[in-house]
Amino acid sequence: xxxxxxxxxxxxxxELKEIMDGDMELIRDCFTDFxxxxxxxxxxxxxxxxxxDGPKLNASAHKLKGTLRYLAAEKAADAAYRLxxxxxxxxxxxxxxxxxTLNHECGKVLEFIRTFKG
Length: 118
Description:
By secondary structure, the protein is mostly helical. It is built from five helices and no strands. The radius of gyration is 14 Å and the shape is elongated.
């Protein structure tokens, strides 16, 4: 396991390079896709949470979690996973804090992407 440092706190770039077999063009393409899709993905999660739709919350958060794990963004992926579990177990009360955490962590990923020089 690669130790956590300021450089890999948001996105573990060494892990990401390993996942993407060192293909920097693929990494940039995946970053672009995430930045473009995140607003809609987050809206789906938020609407499912507000509607107390457990299956939809589970599915939407699961999808985003997978994307974040693929990008080696573990803190954001963990935040999505907590919402996924809430949907799966149908524990749909007081999700505002979890939504806020997910939005905050993904905001850090988006900022990382914006400043990425690789």
